[in-house]
TrEMBL record:
It comes from the Bacteria. Keywords: DNA integration, DNA recombination, DNA-binding. The keyword DNA-binding applies. This is Class 1 integron integrase IntI1. Gene3D superfamilies: 1.10.150.130, Intergrase catalytic core. Residues 112-154 form the Tyr recombinase domain. GO terms for molecular function: DNA binding. It holds the Pfam family Phage_int_SAM_4. One of its GO terms (biological process) is DNA recombination. Residues 14-94 form the Core-binding (CB) domain.
Length: 154
């Protein structure tokens, strides 16, 4: 069930970034969110030669996001933050219904695989140890204990 949202009041500011700040404050977003969104919208405007964002379309948004990913090599979370800022800006500030903006691809974080030693590598590493250090390493490896857990043993 969808809930009806109250229409947003008209913006009093003339400048685009001031309008963005005004809308963010009206919706009670955090200060850090405001700073981040203003940063990304400003970067978007500068990327396109200080053109008004209302004149820019899907190709310009995709070009900016591609530039962030390919040239600036930003992380996935940074890329998503920039996209969220543009979605908020076009949807809540410019009040533009842009169905294409929802269809823009979102990057997925790469899954990190754990580093696993082969049995031969384990034998070689344990071969370098002697005495109680070797016993301790064998105990940790064989049981899967953490170092802190092994140190608490009596």
């Amino acid at each position: 069930m969808k809930t009806a949202t109250a229409p947003l009041p008209p913006l009093r500011s003339v400048k685009v970034l001031d309008q963005l700040r005004e809308r963010i404050r009206y919706l009670h977003y955090s200060l850090r969110t405001e700073q981040a969104y203003v940063h990304w919208v400003r970067a978007f405007i500068r990327f396109h030669g200080v053109r008004h964002p209302a004149t820019l379309g899907s190709s310009e948004v995709e070009a900016f996001l591609s530039w962030l990913a390919n040239e600036r090599k930003v992380s996935v979370s940074t890329h998503r933050q920039a996209l969220a800022a543009l979605l908020f800006f076009y949807g809540k500030v410019l009040c533009t219904d842009l169905p294409w903006l929802q269809e823009i691809g979102r990057p997925r974080p790469s899954r990190r695989l754990p580093v696993v030693l082969t049995p031969d590598e384990v034998v070689r590493i344990l071969g370098f140890l002697e005495g109680e250090h070797r016993l301790f390493a064998q105990l940790l490896y064989g049981t899967g204990m953490r170092i802190s857990e092994g140190l608490q043993l009596r």
